[in-house]
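User: I'm putting together a teaching handout on how sequence relates to shape, and I'd like one worked example. Could you take Transcriptional regulator WhiB from Aquipuribacter hungaricus, show the sequence you're using, and then write out its predicted structure as tokens right after it?

Assistant: Happy to. First the sequence, then the structure tokens directly below it.
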Amino acid sequence: MLPLRRDGAAPTPGWKDRALCAETDPEAFFPEKGGSTREAKKVCVSCEVRAECLDFALGNDERFGIWGGLSERERRRLKKRVV
């Protein structure tokens, strides 16, 4: 249970607390080189915090794993298009 804020209201859980990947096997999100990303991406498709996850990965230069439904290679391509 989350502690109450100073104003007495319950805090809103952070995006990581609402992420579907937190309820699944983390190994799927960090496959070995050449391993399949299919299972992780399947989870990401229906995750309500997918955009926040991707923003976090891009903002923190995450180089490994599936974040926001994208692999490291896909995130690199996305960053190049934005720049």
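A couple of points you could highlight for students: Helices lie at 15-18, 38-45, 50-59, 72-82. The radius of gyration is 15 Å.
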